[in-house]
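Can't paste images in this forum, so I'm doing it all in text. The chain is below; anyone willing to post the predicted structure tokens underneath?
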Amino acid sequence: MQHTPCRAQQEEVYESTVLLDFLERAKQCKQQELETIQKQLAVLEEDCSTAEAKMAAGGEQTVPSIHSPSQEPSSSEASSSQQVAPDPVTPADLAAAEGLDKRKLRVHSNFDELLQNYLEGSSGPVEDPAERLEEFSDSLRSFTRLSSFRELSAFTYGDQSPSSCSIVSSIEFDKDGEFFAIAGVTRKIKVFNYHSVLRNVGFPNHFPVQEMTCNAKLSSVCYNPYHKSTLASSDYEGCVSVWDTNTGLRTVSYQEHSKRVWSVVYNPTDPTIFASGSDDCTVKLWCPPRQQQHSIFTLPAHANVCSVKFHPTDYMYLAYGSADHCIHYVDLRKPDEPLRVLRGHRKAVSYVQFISPTELVSASTDSELKLWNTELGQCVRTYRGHTNDKNFVGLTVNANYIACGSENNAFYVYSKAVSKPMLEYKFNISRNILPDSSGGPEGQQAELVDFVSSVCFKKNTNIVLAANSQGHIKVLELI
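Text version of the structure:
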């Protein structure tokens, strides 16, 4: 009984010690948060001053403040208006004010993510704060200034008979944006003059300037970045070909792949070389000027290869997306030691595209796009909003924008800075029943859900071409 008070006192000391330890740690944590917030506020104050100075240097405000007709002016405003009559509000003023309100609303709707982007950009070491702010301003401008599509032209790829399948697998522009090639399951590559397509608006069928017929369904085409009339293609039978689009003749044909080839791409810094990726779990490099008969290099993969892309500035770097759910980033001089294996997708990676020398975008049949920092090997952002469970739906990038197709017969445009879709364009549905290409039990007919199967930005423009599984093609401008 004599020890009981001692133990009670000791337990009380323990409880007080634990409580004090918690309080001190909580105080330290909040002190660190306060210091972080104070630093962030200081940066915000500096950036606000920079933005205000920029507005002042721009001259008078060009977008008027518009009041509703029912809003009565105050007595001071009324007396002031007797001395100086306000400028009349024109329809252009109203439109400008409405446009500004829409841009603000888009920012407010995505405020949390934009704030996180801003704070992440301001937290690291920055040599030039003005450059950092301008970079964020550029991403904000890209996200808010485009709000809709304008249709420039529409036409069809296949013969459009009720029993035909006209899925467009690939659309690509030549190096000058003068011509574009369309390929798909009709086994034909059709080359169109872009400006001619725009001039003849309203015609459902445009005549191609060149048409090449292949022996199998086509999966991919790619123009040579230097030779305007040179085009590479890949098909479902494992054949890789090179074409002269001036003559419409096949100049080289390779049959090394043992299974379907999904992707073909030229090296942007060495146009004599192109690569292909196949279901036979290999990436092969080809060099027609030096070697007409065989590939010059074979990179073994651990699973089916769905997409291949060369680095935009380093000809020895290559990335490929695979059925193992990963993106493999490789230095061809050390093929056995990948620079990065980017993990995060839950299903096959169907497309990869470099959006900058250090950033890569991937698409997967898990209905997600991901932006990766290839130097750090980290996923920067995941984009969700489209639907992609089983088909190749296309992926294209242009400056700060990413576009992809979807299995709801629409395609979506994302701003690089925001994970939700910025714009959506829906194709009309005009077909009901076709045989299911996957083959149902006992051969019954099944409804074929239309999907957007290919998209392509015209280089350095806001023009995008999109095609769906019916073979309908739209030329659209983001405005």
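Confidence is low (pLDDT under 50) at residues 68-72, 77-81, 432-447. DSSP finds six helices and 30 strands in the chain.
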